[in-house]
Design a protein that fits this description.
It is a single chain. The protein is about 80% helix and about 0% strand. By secondary structure, it is mainly alpha-helical. The protein has one domain: Na+/H+ antiporter like fold. The radius of gyration is 18 Å and the shape is globular.
Length: about 300
């Protein structure tokens, strides 16, 4: 437990710091949106290409990881649909609960993987991300189409997935690694220096986006979305790993990702496709805060059952 807390403490400290400095209006509200674009389109892709081009990617069982991720997402979707059937919400609210129950904060996931498992953890996390992002987006677009009756645009969603900078970076990094091309030293040295900014700045930005006002006004939907995401998902992933995953480290990184809070990008999708954006903001905030308490507990207890 102490080792997990020690590894995760800097991650959660930066989340809190981001929220505090945003409340202090420093360095100004105009800073955060450009910073998020810099992280998403440049710094995070650089980090992924740099780490993956140097990591032992061949040691990651890609097929097993893909199967584990797919089973988790389909199981989570089934659980959330059953809950909606038993305790129905209006369509817009359910789409926010669904995103809260099934999306993963990749920034926190990569930071925690690096802190606990080092470069090998980052390589495993990158493979998880490469599988997870396309499947997640397709499932979310399908749910929006069914529950808001709004054309979510499958072709535009597919195009958004194909041009997602994180997906592109994962495939470039894996290609450079497996092909033996690698990164030239001049590029690698610059990428290593620049990508060092990615995780700290990303965590500050996630903290800056927390909305305590929306959380205070939210109801029980935040609770059951968080219970599914932060408690049920890790237990489901534990069973999946026991059945399909032989590597202990891979199983541990999969458990870590299953315990992550939902992603801030869910708010953008809720606003664009007719979901309940206010509820989505509350779920993002509530889960991020709860994960500070629950992630260390989950990651300390569940791996002992692998």
């Amino acid at each position: 437990m102490n080792e997990i807390l020690t590894a995760l403490w800097p991650v959660f400290a930066l989340l809190c710091a981001g929220h505090i400095i945003r409340r202090m209006a420093f360095p100004g509200d105009g800073f955060w949106e450009p910073a998020e674009r810099l992280i998403y389109f440049l710094l995070f892709p650089l980090l992924l290409v740099h780490k993956l081009s140097l990591a032992d990617v061949g040691a990651v069982p890609v097929a097993d990881v893909a199967l584990a991720v797919a089973l988790l997402l389909f199981a989570g979707t089934l659980v959330l649909l059953v809950i909606q059937r038993l305790k129905p919400l209006d369509g817009g609210s359910f789409t926010s609960v669904y995103q809260g129950g099934i999306r993963f904060n990749t920034y926190v996931g990569l930071a925690a993987s690096a802190a606990i498992f080092g470069d090998s953890g980052v390589a495993i996390a990158a493979v998880i991300i490469a599988v997870m992002i396309p499947l997640l987006n397709l499932l979310c677009v399908l749910i929006f189409s069914l529950y808001t009756r709004k054309d979510a645009g499958y072709l535009s969603a597919l195009w958004a997935i194909l041009k997602n900078p994180l997906i592109i970076a994962c495939f470039i990094g894996i290609f450079l690694n497996l092909s033996g091309i690698g990164l030239p030293w001049a590029v690698a040295s610059v990428a290593g220096l620049a990508s060092g900014m990615a995780l700290p700045l990303a965590l500050l930005a996630v903290g800056a986006g927390l909305n305590l006002t929306a959380l205070r006004k939210a109801g029980g939907a935040v609770i059951y979305s968080s219970a599914v995401k932060l408690l049920l998902f890790p237990v489901v992933m534990l069973f999946i790993c026991r059945l399909f995953i032989d590597s202990l480290e891979v199983a541990q990184v999969l458990l870590l990702f299953s315990a992550l809070p939902t992603a801030p990008s869910a708010y953008v999708l809720a606003r664009q496709l007719g979901g309940d954006a206010t509820l989505m903001s509350a779920i993002i905030t509530g889960q991020t805060l709860l994960s500070m308490l629950l992630m260390p507990i989950v990651l300390s207890i569940l791996p002992s059952f692998l």
